[in-house]
Amino acid sequence: MPGAFAGLPESLRQAFAMLHxxxxxxxxxxxxxxxxxxxxxxxxxxxxxxxxxxxxxxxxWRAGRVPSPRLLAGNRLCIIVEPSYGQRVAxxxxxxxxxxxxxxxQPQTDPCGQYIVQMWAAAGMEREIAAKQSxxxxxxxxxxxxxPGFLVDGRAHAGVxxxxxxxxxxxxxxxxxxxxxxxxxxxxxxxxxxxxxxQSGPSAVAGEFVAFMTGPAGQSLLVDHGFVAAExxxxxxxxxxRR
Length: 243
What we know:
- This protein is an alpha+beta fold and 243 residues long.
- The protein folds into 2 domains: 3-74 and 188-232, D-Maltodextrin-Binding Protein, domain 2 (3-Layer(aba) Sandwich), CATH 3.40.190; 77-177, D-Maltodextrin-Binding Protein, domain 2 (3-Layer(aba) Sandwich).
- Helix content is 34%, strand content 16%.
- The protein contains 9 helices and 9 strands.
- The protein has helices at 9-19, 33-41, 54-62, 111-122, 126-134, 148-152, 163-169, 204-214, 216-224, and strands spanning 48-51, 70-74, 77-81, 102-105, 138-141, 158-162, 174-177, 190-194, 228-229.
- A 5-stranded mixed β-sheet has the order 5-4-6-3-7. The protein has a 4-stranded antiparallel β-sheet with strand order 1-8-2-9, with helices on both faces.
- 42% of the residues are buried.
- The model has no long low-confidence stretch (mean pLDDT 91).
């Protein structure tokens, strides 16, 4: 699963075990969706794939690795600030202050990083962000999952990533909301699907987990952890694998 789900494993284990006693969920390291997708395209085995965007799920659908993807949830972007620096950041523009080191996920394989690049463009901040990167004051984490560590160990003062992850961090960071017209809530879309391994098709229990996550219990769990319910997400899919 992508890094946005790093705060969910124990909750998912407990909730799914109530419906399927004896089934123990095992989780891949929480890394960017693009890295996970490439592993599957290269032949790695798995039962479930979750992508933090539509693009990587569509790649696997076209390749026949995930025959029946489903929309899973939405999210939004937010700012997190190291507490001792918290009063200095109240908006996106404050992230441009000289001396403030900002961390975001890399955009090459991490959808969160890609959403953030789109946000800079929408906010008209591309030139300033490029200058900040050139000065060494914009750094990149591998993904959203390892981003908080940059604030914890002093490598950065503030970061941008998913609101669901900020919620799981609690009082260890100060969360600053991004205006709704810029927080990408209308574009962020997570998808889930059971993986095809060989000729036998996805496993029955994988299908049951997809049904659980896209059903009322799974959706309630995701909303409780700061995600947006799938029914509120309507991304442009291009090739519509929802049919």
